[in-house]
Amino acid sequence: MFDLLAKVRADRELLATRADGPLPARVGEGELIELIRELEDLKSTAAALQARASVEFADRRREAEEAARVPARQRGRGVGAEVALARRESPTRGGRHLGLAKALVDELGSSFAALREGSLSEWRATLIARETACLTRGDRAEVDRHLNGPESVGWGDRRLVAEARRLVYRIDPHGLIDRARRAAADRHVSVRPAPDTMVRFSALLPVADGVACYAALKQTAESARSQGDDRSRGQVMADAMVERLTGRHPHVGPDVAVKLVLTDRTLFAGDAEPAHLEGYDTVPAQWARDLITHAANQAVGLWFQQLYTHPGTGALVAQTSRSRTAPAGLADFIATRDRTCRTPYCDAPIRHIDHVHAVATGGPTTTENTQGLCEACNYAKQAPGWVARAGPGPRHTVTTRTPTGHHHRSTAPPLPGHDVEDVATGDGPRAGPSAGRGWLTLARSSR
Q1: Where are the beta strands (DSSP E) in 205-297?
Q2: HSE value, Cβ hemisphere, 13 Å, CA-based, for 106
Q3: Which residues touch 384 (CB under 8 Å, ≥6 apart)?
Q4: 228, 294, 305, 369: which sits with the fewest CB atoms below 10 Å from its CB?
Q5: Residue 337, Cβ density class (10 Å: 0-12 exposed, 13-18 middle, ≥19 buried)
């Protein structure tokens, strides 16, 4: 092991021992604040070293692939994903970290120096890199020097971004306008789980459209409130958005199909075992029963699909196919088992049902040899040097070896009725009205 890596590990172990338990009483309050500051500076310095290591890794991988005559379009594929695994983050964020590292090392010398010295955080370095991306190398370095000058001390994130945009516009007004026009192509809508069976529904829009949407909803809320509506302004705006998008009142059940996975005991015997709602996450048992009851009262078609699991491990019963691609039934089976992308630290939605052991090298199309992946992770594992194999375990397990020889293990999440402790101990079903391990996959059909 080279000296720098050994030193970093030794220092981290020393800090870990200091964090284990209260600090000595003789350490004063002022010293505690100084310690907090020094540790914050240390995080920035560590981020600078991470950036340097990431760039070195990417450069060496590129040189090795050029020497191996890897096609140009395939070079660098998987580098960001391997950085992400090392940082215990998703491939998307890993790619962003790698892009930031290259910008800091190659073009943003002042920001990199400030990060290395501890006076600039990694997040603020990200803001500078993002806002100056449209400039030439020389202009970008000039703006970078201004943003890290003595007058920037004490700036908040908003002030930093505002100053960066002002300087960029002064240097290249046409470039900033062109960038704004291209940004419209990135418009999209997203949904993320929130606590208490809520979601955050958001849209990235051109500023004129976004402001217009908000103004229209706000006007609707103010009108309703002026006529005596007792809902809050935010509640009226949220309800109006749902009604305008779906054409129905928010308190009427949606007429699109949803999939809910729950145990037979939860559905029929009032058990408290939570359910899983596809596209969200864990939901309370009573909430799931209320959803089903509401759907029945709305005369919406319901159907059930029973999936059997191993009584000790909770693993879904396997099914096989001789088809090269996963048929619809198997694809739905894998999506139910895996829920989200199986790459460690990646929670992206499943886009591809992929073979763990590639078909080209003899991998079969079975439940054991397939996994759900997002698009980015599926493409990353196709880069030279990536090898994945399904292995033994209480639940479906995949071990991936990266080109550097590091191994990363992924295990399918437990389904309702089996938690981690059940699997670890091999305990059978919990006592209850039904001792079977059948799952009821509930879908609600269109009206």
Answers
A1: 259-263, 275-277, 282-283
A2: 14
A3: 65, 68, 70, 74, 78, 403
A4: 228
A5: buried
- CA dist 203 and 218 (Å) reads 17
Q: pTM of the predicted model, to two decimals?
A: 0.72
Which whole-number Å values give the CA distances from 204 to 14, 116, 190, 376, in the listed order?
44, 34, 8, 21
- Report the distance separating Cα 365 and Cα 324, nearest Å: 6
Residues 6+ apart with CB under 8 A from 287: 197, 275
What burial class does residue 404 get, using C-beta atoms within 10 Å of its C-beta: 0-12 exposed, 13-18 middle, 19+ buried? exposed
The token duo for 194 is 């929130």
Beta bridge partners of 188: 204
Rg over CA atoms, the chain: 27
3-class secondary-structure state, position 206: coil
Tell me the C-alpha distance between 402 and 381, whole Å. Answer: 8
